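Ops channel
N.P.: pipeline sanity check, posting one input/output pair.
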């Protein structure tokens, strides 16, 4: 140690006077100084052990004693025993052990006793250090193996810079495994150089640092070194890498747009090129058979980063690469797409053909908005039909009410396209247009809501203005080609087809359906319920 035992006892005496802990506690020094590492800036880490089964807090207390930063933690004998038991019972399933648990056990096993050495010895005896070294060796080897195999996968995908990064991560974890097999179990990678010095075998140490410091060290060199130090099964074998389905990732196509829903929470909209590659992915096939072009490799790599697909190593299960003692890796969530509006009848707009755009709406709100958008367009067609009938019969007051109705359902579709859901009350829709980016449609909507119809000429003028207004709304919401739902059996069938695509997604996400009858359309598989074969 870099500090004398007398000095540590002095620091401990001063510390105990400032905390609520009696002399019955056993005390150890743990951490980098106990390991023989550390420097003048290193914490003094005291662990106080209660000979009881109490549930003591995990959070440390931080003090400053004699110019040193001192951290005080507490554990009961029961808590320490349970930590050791979890490691012992894991057996060969080292991948199930988390680094926090291993770190706590390692610090205790390698701690320096300061008070009640007999109790400390009994606790440590529950997990022999030689057994722990073997567990750490296998744990680091497991992580190294996943990183090196993942680096090979990225090489197949043409992601060479990223592959080198993961290969270096595998290299470091492989070196930690080798060191653990020689009694160097401290988890923190920053002390690895000192661990390798103490472990001896200069050729191993020198080759490790040569590869680590070389910006051009390729994955093959790292794999070769890993095999030399006992990390086997990482060679470049692209035929063993397969593309696998991720639970909770589903594909939904509406119109020409392919959407991928992740975990019922996030929606990705794919551009034409991305959708083509996505459609070509056959799960269970070798990665090299799927990534047949550089463009496909780039897109599959992006699917992989965003957690839309995963990779497996035949015979060994899913690849789960992790950096050494870094934040847990997880699916990437890019910044949400800035394309606006976020919803159209044909699907979400995208930024380009290779786009894998994360939508700025939760999946449930996206589907609910889309269903309301479609249904609002059906109501526009219904209101227009009612309006032409009222004008034919000279029902002017009825025409005025329907005009207002047609404006309101158009505004429903406009707000839905921007993801506003639930919607404001119909009478408040025009005032809530201030939620949207500036649009000239707001002025027209206010004018049409108060239009007066008292003659054929005023009726014709109102209808023309409404048609222009609806066309403007539909241009914004991607509904320009929405069928005239009630003109014929064919246009009604087209309307049902559009609605059914969105209803299926909404039902999957447990979103509120826009009307009760929509459940019948779902139950019938998109067919009208009372007709033979759903034919009109």
């Amino acid at each position: 140690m870099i500090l004398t035992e007398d000095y540590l006892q002095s620091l401990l005496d001063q510390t105990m006077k400032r905390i609520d802990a009696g002399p019955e506690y056993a005390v150890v020094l743990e951490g980098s100084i106990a390991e023989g590492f550390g420097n003048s800036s290193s914490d003094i880490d005291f662990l106080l052990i209660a000979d009881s089964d109490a549930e003591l807090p995990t959070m440390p207390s931080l003090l400053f004693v004699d110019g040193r930063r001192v951290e005080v933690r507490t554990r009961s004998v029961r808590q320490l025993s349970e930590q050791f038991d979890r490691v012992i019972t894991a057996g060969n399933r080292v991948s199930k052990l988390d680094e926090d648990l291993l770190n706590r056990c390692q610090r205790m096993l390698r701690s320096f006793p300061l008070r009640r050495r007999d109790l400390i010895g009994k606790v440590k005896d529950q997990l022999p250090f030689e057994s722990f070294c073997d567990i750490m060796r296998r744990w680091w080897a497991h992580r190294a193996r996943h990183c090196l195999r993942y680096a090979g996968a990225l090489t197949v995908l043409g992601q060479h810079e990223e592959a080198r990064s993961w290969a270096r991560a595998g290299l470091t974890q492989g070196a930690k495994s080798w060191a653990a097999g020689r009694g160097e179990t401290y988890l923190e990678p920053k002390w690895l150089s000192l661990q390798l010095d103490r472990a001896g075998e200069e050729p191993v140490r020198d080759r490790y640092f040569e590869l680590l410091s070389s910006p051009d060290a390729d994955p093959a060199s790292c794999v070769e070194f890993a095999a030399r130090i006992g990390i086997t099964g990482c060679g470049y074998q692209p035929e063993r890498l397969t593309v696998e389905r991720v639970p909770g990732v589903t594909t939904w196509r509406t119109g020409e747009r392919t959407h991928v829903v992740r975990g019922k929470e996030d929606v990705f909209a794919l551009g034409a090129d991305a959708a083509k590659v996505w459609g070509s992915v056959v799960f269970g096939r070798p990665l090299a058979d799927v990534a047949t072009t550089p463009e496909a490799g780039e897109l599959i790599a992006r699917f992989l980063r965003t957690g839309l697909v995963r990779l497996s190593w035949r015979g060994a299960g899913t690849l789960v690469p992790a950096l050494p003692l870094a934040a847990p890796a997880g699916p990437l969530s890019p910044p949400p797409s800035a394309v606006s509006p976020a919803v159209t009848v044909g699907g979400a707009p995208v930024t380009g053909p290779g786009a894998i755009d994360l939508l700025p709406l939760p999946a449930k709100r996206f589907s609910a908005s889309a269903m309301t958008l479609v249904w609002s367009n059906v109501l526009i067609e219904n209101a227009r039909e009612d309006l032409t009938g009222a004008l034919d019969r000279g029902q002017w007051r009825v025409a005025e009410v329907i005009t207002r109705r047609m404006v309101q359902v158009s505004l429903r579709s406009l707000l839905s396209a921007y993801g506003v859901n639930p919607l404001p009350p119909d009478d408040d829709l025009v005032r809530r247009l201030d939620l949207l980016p500036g649009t000239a449609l707001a002025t027209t909507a206010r004018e049409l809501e108060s239009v007066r119809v008292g003659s054929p000429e005023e009726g014709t003028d109102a209808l023309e203005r409404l048609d222009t207004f609806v066309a403007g709304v539909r241009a914004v919401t991607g509904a320009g080609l929405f069928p005239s739902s009630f003109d014929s059996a064919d246009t009604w069938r087209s309307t049902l087809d559009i609605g059914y695509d969105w209803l299926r997604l909404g039902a999957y996400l447990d979103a509120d359906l826009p009307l009760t009858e929509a459940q019948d359309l779902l139950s019938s598989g998109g067919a009208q319920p009372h007709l033979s074969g759903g034919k009109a």
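N.P.: looks fine end to end. The CA atoms of residues 104 and 349 lie 50 Å apart.
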